[in-house]
Amino acid sequence: MEINDLITADGVIAKLRVTSKKQALQELACKAAEITGLHERAIFDVLMERERLGTTGVGNGIAIPHGKLPNMDRLYSVFARLEQPIDFDSIDERPVDLLFLLLAPESAGADHLKALARVSRLLRDKSVCEKLRGTDNGEALYAVLTESMASRAA
After folding, report:
1. Is 66 a known active-site residue?
2. What is the pTM of this model?
3. What is the pLDDT of residues 94-110, one digit of tens each?
């Protein structure tokens, strides 16, 4: 499973202006609703429920909010680069400026975990994160997200 199996250019938000974790999750849910055709509130509720279990702020300015929903036919993602970092209750207590939302069907099982691992590996790469933080152009962000794994596989 590659990143370009998860995200489309439509799923990239280049300059997300939010001031809180809740607002960020609302905006991600709104974008995800456009892409998936599912109800925005259902997506938001799943994300908030997951955050109550423990933060998805994984450190180094990165958060990977995720959840499973019924009525989904495949995995979907939304990536957002924030205009200003926000508090996300991250494990390292640093503010977050890169968000990678991952939504999976309830039946996804191992595919959901494989996708989380793939996203986590991608965003652990410091050079990828530097490139993502270095542009606020949606097409460039999409290219960084999708090309970095392809070039590594070659």
Report:
1. yes
2. 0.93
3. 999 999 999 999 988 88
